[in-house]
Amino acid sequence: MSTDPFSLFSLKGKTALVTGASAGIGFAVAHTFAHAGADIALGYNSSLTAIQTAADLAKSAGVTVEAYKCPVDDSDAVASTFASALEKFGKIDIVVSNAGITWTSGELIDPPDHKAWKQVMDVNLDGSYYVAKEAGRIFKAQGYGSLIFTSSISAFIVNVPQRQAAYNASKAAVTHLAKSLAVEWASFARVNSVSPGYTITEITNFADDDMREEWRRRIPMGREALPVELVGAYLYLASDASTYTTGSDIIIDGGYTLI
């Protein structure tokens, strides 16, 4: 293995599949991986511009980028996406399970039915399982691979002032799923997670100015993150710089969980 620190972080010759990659954290990760040399299978759900986004990224990074419609709460769609990407690229070295939604239905007892709870669990938890299952099958056959989950600081703390028990529970499950799979797959793949704090993406559009001000008051650094400030952790976990790292969770939250 190379001891050159820069070559360790290179993804040249690797293929990465990233879900929820048409915007936000997922796109920032896909963009970074592509510019680090990886070919990209860009998974999206409802974006109308994902195909053009993929074409633009391929041109700017000089790699192959293919867009796949992949609603992660549909196990058949996830399986089809992995099969198509494997046929296209011949291998998948890295998988980032990033797609997720938030809970905007208020207190847990408020919604009149179970649909909101089920939707959050279907996407955040079951979707993570479907992605992991397909990734694991490929990694086991190859004898190698790196799976990275996007979790959240909500796996460790209870966010305020918003009420989001369903989201918190889903992310706590994702974090423990990552740790469990790290043990199960230790002989052939690495599994880790990244837990962002408050980040400026579409998923936080539900918050009004007063809520955001409360978040900032509780963050020692006094602000939310930009997606680009998270990507170093993903690059580390995807690259050969982390070949002895598995079962880890990297918290990036401006100090929020310290107080």
UniProtKB/TrEMBL annotation:
Coiled-coil segments: none
Signal peptide: none
PROSITE patterns, alphabetized: ADH_SHORT (PS00061)
Protein name from the UniProt record: Uncharacterized protein
Family recorded in the similarity comment: Belongs to the short-chain dehydrogenases/reductases (SDR) family.
Keywords: NADP, Oxidoreductase
Pfam families named in the record: adh_short_C2
Listed GO MF terms: mannitol 2-dehydrogenase (NADP+) activity; oxidoreductase activity, acting on NAD(P)H, oxygen as acceptor
Presence of the UniProt keyword Iron in the record: no
Highest taxon above the source species: Eukaryota
GO biological process entries: carbohydrate metabolic process; small molecule metabolic process
